[in-house]
Amino acid sequence: MPNDTRVTGFILMGFSAAPELQTVCGLFFLVMYLAVIMSNLLIITVITLDLKLQTPMYFFLKNLSLLDVFLVSIPIPKFIINNLTHNNYISILGCAFQILLMTSFSAGEIFVLTAMSYDRYVAICSPLCYEAIMSSGNCVLMVGVSWATGILFGALYTAGTFSMPFCGSMVIPQFFCDVPSLLRISCSGSLMIIYISLGIGMCLCMSCFYCVMISYFYIISTVLKIPTTRGQSKAFATCIPHLTVFSVFIATACFVYLKPPSDIPSITDRLFSVLYTVLPPALNPVIYSLRNSDVKCSLRRLQQNLCPRDSYYLTVQRFCQCYSASQVTSKCF
Fold first, then answer.
1. Residue 121 pLDDT grade (very low, low, confident, very high; cuts 50, 70, 90)
2. If both were cysteines, with which of 45, 134, 189, 281 could 72 make a disulfide (CB 3.0 to 4.6 Å apart)?
3. CATH no. for residue 223?
4. Is 2 part of any domain?
């Protein structure tokens, strides 16, 4: 006989049931979370303060880093608190907010990455028209549409998920709320609304994927026509970071959502979810700072402005003078 007890909250599964290991896991994720947040905020700060980086490509990169900050800040702090307090409970409202925000920011990130591929296409294939096409107004419009479409899809996806009643088990076999786990404990006879939401999401993702692939097809065709090897290398250098970030994001998402569902959830499923939520936000600043000479130069300029060499030597000189004066005074007495 089915259990029709309505669920008012859920229990999120961590990586261990032992309190000592939960504490260690919470501290480890706290360090990792702070590193991800600080690196992305550093990219945002550098792009905002450096006038030489006020270009469409870095405008998109700043929004991408901002989305990464929001995306990683939804599941990870809750997971850290759960491990440190040894309490894995989450209310239905909290679960709904997690799905709404994670879906919105994930979709927004895909759309921003698509806009970045179009920016690279215009820069390489139509350089004479670049300033006219990628004007500040058009860039703001593309980013605004990306954010708005992501939020709209997130709202539709969340409404479709929580229009279903939940009954029976309260345990979600993940460290955050996700739709595949919720479908397992749904007692609804019809999943039409969620299937419609999934269909719309797949269409949007495939459209973005095809747009990126078409952009890079024309980019590669144009770059190969450049007569010099140096010109080809310079053109490819502006595209490799974006293509790497896009590939990492799509690959980790496919690992999580396209993997065949297992009857008995394992720790491997939760590890894949960690890759999806933490790996792209962690790698994006590294990829763009290590592979991009403009960002590295801007970081050096910011460091010099905050800690100029002259002030450092002046501080050392004053310290030495004070130390010498104190030695003379002590000898006099």
1. very high
2. 281
3. 1.20.1070.10
4. no
